[in-house]
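Reviewer comment 2.1 asked that we show a complete input and output for one of the modelled complexes. We chose the S-adenosylmethionine case, as it is the one discussed in the main text.
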Amino acid sequence: MNPNAWWGQGFGFMWIIPLLFFVVFLFFIRGLFGQGPGGSNTSTRSESARKILDELYTRLAQEPDVNFGWGKGKENARQLGYAEAWLNQLPDSVWESAAAVGNPFSLGFIQTGETVVDIGCGAGADACVAALLVGEEGKVFGFDCTPAMVAKATANASACGLAQMAVQKAEMAALPLPDTSADIVISNGAVNLAADKDAVLREVFRILRPAGRLQIADMVRDPSSTDSSCCEKASWADCVSGTLHPEVFLDTLRSAGFIHTELAGFTVYRTSPGTIGALFRAVKP
Ligand SMILES: C[S@@+](CC[C@H](N)C(=O)[O-])C[C@H]1O[C@@H](n2cnc3c(N)ncnc32)[C@H](O)[C@@H]1O
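Response of the prediction step:
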């Protein structure tokens, strides 16, 4: 009998065992690095980061007293320069889940009767402020991907009697609005969370009317930070690793078609030593 015959008599599959171990090992590694957007597989990374993002913002909506490790609520808004009148006029339920990283209203005036769109509106604090500014003749549309945030923002609009404010579940990159339907788009701490920022800013450009304005507060890489690798393995959902360098953010705005693109300044908000709040404005030609 051939001494190697046992390979052909049922033991030939043995080579599969180390292969299986290797495949399991690969999945393990993928799972580990899938949580941080610094990994190499973008789609896996995004799916994993997205799940964490959903859970985090559902929790922020439903358990606003939890300490997430970053500023939120009314006092945070006060530190970012929100007017006392808004902080006092709007009830605590509006502010408790607010996660502002800057004050988009510091970037320009919003007139009575205008149509304002807030992308990544969260529990609706900025949308409520915008609704106060545009008045009953105006309109405010808030969009967020987290159902719990949409529910809370809708309840907040109703509690404030702001019938001019409507909130809907939607992706920032696919807004359910016609072309050239908005006078102004605002956003606060949300664009950095999008997997495809080009698509988001192109979508904002699409819905703005000619001469429409963009006023955004968002987290960016701190250009004065010496640690350029600070953010790659950090949390996407906590507004760290999805951030862009401010110059890249400006380039993305210009690529989308915006003019008068401007980094108006930085805020006091931080999500890590290497990330800082920034204020951007731009105009659609
Ligand atoms: C840091 S919170 C800020 C919320 C709000 N702008 C504020 O100032 O309180 C970011 C929000 O963006 C939403 N968000 C993240 N990615 C989104 C996406 N791709 N489309 C729509 N909303 C998104 C989250 O659900 C969350 O409510």
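The mean pLDDT is 87. We note this here for comparison with the apo prediction described in Section 3.2.
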